[in-house]
Amino acid sequence: MGSSLSAARGFFDLFDRTPTIDNGSVDGRQLENFQGQIEFNQVEFSYPSRPTIRVLNKFQLTIEPGQWVALVGRSGCGKSTVIQLLQRFYDVTHGKVCLDGVDIRDLNIHWLRSQFSLANQEPILFDMTIAENIAYGKVNPSLEDIIEAATKANIHQFVISLPQGYETRVGAKGSHLSGGQKQRIVIARALFRQPKVLLLDEATSAMDSYNEQIVQRALVQAQTEDPNRTSLTIAHRLSTIHSCDVIHVLSKGHIEESGTHTELMQKHGLYYHMYVQTTIE
Ligand SMILES: Nc1ncnc2c1ncn2[C@@H]1O[C@H](COP(=O)(O)OP(=O)(O)OP(=O)(O)O)[C@@H](O)[C@H]1O
Ligand SMILES: [Mg+2]
């Protein structure tokens, strides 16, 4: 139990770190009836350690409530940075980021972060059981809900094949599991929380294409079942984002192209060229 507690503290240390954020943010307001609208308004951003390099420049992006949006672009173009800014791990250098029209700097930072569930390329697992990892942070979770999330993330069959099932401990940082299994548990955790905004940053990158397709289908299904959820997906494998409502292509610090998969393919621009290249690879 001691190790579970210290793992839990590690989690909070990680997610509550506030490198450039002032302490006043805990006094900020909460939105009573947050709809899930997100807007980046003329955002400029440089990391504090590299002030001369502008990662985002005149970055403009609006995500409507319930929309399922994909953000794509070359490695290092700033996609994960967008997600970091949204959760306020850093503040913008100029411009603003708003939720339902309210600048996130005016919002209570704990409330703000509780609106998002993030599954990313490097899953964070604790030395606890699989059930505890999926239901992380929830007091008295129901096993039924845990199984439902695990089934959607296509990890349930694997879990029940283990001698101790959901009570199996995953080891330090999930070392008893493969990369793809860890990612599926983190997706299950993200779905279990039923967030207002789901953030997926290369969340299926360690899976083989069979499992990736199943998880992608489950995510499409989850989005259809809860049309009020706003989702932002980042993916290199462009075949995984075909069914998103809109795809934005990030290049040179801002959105260069937007549209559905079909629209962007017809346009023969950046997306088309990325698509052709990734399907050849
Ligand atoms: N903490 C940091 N401090 C300084 N620079 C950073 C930091 N994190 C990222 N960068 C730089 O900011 C730029 C954008 O990084 P980011 O991680 O947003 O790219 P990305 O589009 O997510 O790339 P990938 O597809 O490889 O994940 C890169 O040039 C990167 O080197
Ligand atoms: Mg990234």
Topology readout:
Elements: H1 2-15, E1 38-45, E2 56-63, E3 68-72, H2 79-86, E4 94-99, E5 102-103, H3 109-114, E6 116-120, H4 130-134, H5 143-152, H6 156-160, H7 179-192, E7 197-201, H8 209-225, E8 230-234, E9 246-251, E10 254-259, H9 261-267, H10 270-280
Parallel strand pairs: 3-8, 3-9, 6-7, 7-8
Antiparallel strand pairs: 1-2, 1-4, 4-5, 9-10
The chain binds adenosine-5'-triphosphate (ATP) and magnesium ion.
Membrane topology: Multi-pass membrane protein
InterPro entries: AAA+_ATPase, ABC1_TM_sf, ABC_transporter-like_ATP-bd, ABC_transporter-like_CS, P-loop_NTPase, Type_1_exporter
Domain ABC transporter: 38-277
CATH A-level architecture of the largest domain? 3-Layer(aba) Sandwich
Quaternary arrangement of the chains shown? single chain
Helix count from the secondary structure assignment: 10
Terminus-to-terminus distance = 46 Å
Q: Would you tell me the overall average pLDDT?
A: 89
Q: Give the tally of structural domains.
A: 2
Give me the Rg, rounded: 19 Å
CATH topology of the largest domain: Rossmann fold
Query: Strand-and-helix sequence, N→C?
Result: HEEEHEEHEHHHHEHEEEHH
The gross shape turns out to be: globular
- CATH class category name of the largest domain: Alpha Beta
